[in-house]
Design a protein that fits this description.
Helix content: 25-40%
Strand content: 15-25%
Radius of gyration: 20 Å
Shape: globular
Structural class: alpha/beta
Order of helices and strands: EHEEEEHEEHEEHEEHEEHHHEHH
Number of strands: 14
Distance between the termini: 46 Å
């Protein structure tokens, strides 16, 4: 019988692409059975139908949709019954520390406890490389980096990681995730370029990126892998990092941004952004290396990391132009 998979956060950016990756599995044979855990009021992925009954997400059979909330641990009772694999893609991202702690920390702990009670074989949690804090990180492996989170979101996601790891689960740490549905990474870079009215020059920082479609496939593959030694944390980014100047130039080119000024050195950019602490924070983050070695993860789960940043950005450019232009 095909595995029964619970997906949390299926209506979100990464979770939606995890559901799409499950759909792909269904096109070549017996589709996995999928249970979606959604908050009350959260929309279903396209094709899932309405209400709590069965439906299909383009080939991946949704046996049921359960309405529960990570912020309310009592609502999670029974959500893992009959489940083989949990793909945990839900997180609260924002500056509300109490909400982040409730959802990311306490909610994940309750979900992991429920998975253990129900006898779930594997839990995969989609975390973030932000649990390491600010760089520089150059070709850094998982084992050499301590936790040093610098925001409520990353602190509570680090706490969530510990619940999953203590239970023998798998944690995936992407850095910059790009693709259709991204409302933070590329739009944030576009906003920074708009404030600078110029690109950067003379900055050699490199960043790890991953296309959300490949990330979705990696999450599914990690959940279904028979490799018992996969338990633990893994970086999941394209093996080739991207130079920050190329990153910004490609975003500007593909989104058709008008940058009237000549490229700036990093000190000139800081001067131009004086008095804008949020923009200065973003500039500081991209101005240093955030390059994470994958440690052979892609080969272990049998997923191709796909084409590099330039080609993927070209493929997603129409979506980004529509979003940034709103």
């Amino acid at each position: 019988m095909s595995p029964h998979i619970l997906v949390t956060g299926g209506s979100g950016f990464i979770g939606g692409h995890v559901v799409a990756a499950l759909r792909e599995l269904g096109t070549g044979g017996t589709p996995p059975r999928v249970r979606l855990l959604l908050r009350e009021g959260a929309s279903l992925p396209a094709g899932a139908g309405a209400g709590a009954g069965a439906g299909s997400v383009d080939g991946a059979l949704v046996t049921d949709v359960v309405r529960a909330d990570l912020a309310d641990p009592s609502s999670l009772r029974g959500v893992c019954d009959g489940i083989d694999v949990v793909l945990h893609c839900a997180s609260h991202i924002g500056d509300d520390e109490r909400r982040a702690e409730t959802v990311n920390d306490h909610g994940t702990r309750a979900l992991v406890e429920e998975a253990a009670r129900a006898g779930v074989a594997r839990v995969v949690y989609v975390s973030t490389a932000a649990v390491y804090g600010r760089g520089p990180f150059a070709s850094a492996s998982v084992g050499e980096l301590p936790y040093a989170p610098a925001s409520p979101t990353s602190r509570t996601r680090a706490a969530a990681e510990r619940h999953v790891l203590d239970a023998g689960g798998v944690v995936l740490r992407p850095h910059l995730v790009l693709g259709s549905g991204d409302r933070w990474v590329v739009p944030g870079l576009a906003a920074l370029l708009g404030l600078l009215s110029a690109g950067l020059k003379g900055c050699a920082a490199r960043h790890s990126v991953v296309d959300v479609r490949e990330l979705g496939r990696a999450v599914v593959a990690a959940g279904l892998s028979e490799d018992r030694d996969l338990a633990g944390a893994h970086h999941v980014n394209h093996p080739e990092p991207v130079d920050v100047s190329l990153l910004l130039d490609t975003v500007a080119d593909r989104l058709g941004l008008r940058l009237p000024g000549p490229p700036l050195h990093i000190d000139e950019a800081r001067t131009r952004l004086a008095g804008q602490p949020r923009a200065l924070h973003h500039l500081g983050m991209i101005a240093v290396d955030h390059w994470f070695a994958d440690g052979g993860f892609w080969a272990r789960v049998g997923v191709d990391p796909g084409a590099g940043f330039g080609q993927r950005m070209a493929e997603h450019a129409p979506w980004y132009r529509g979003f940034v232009g709103r």
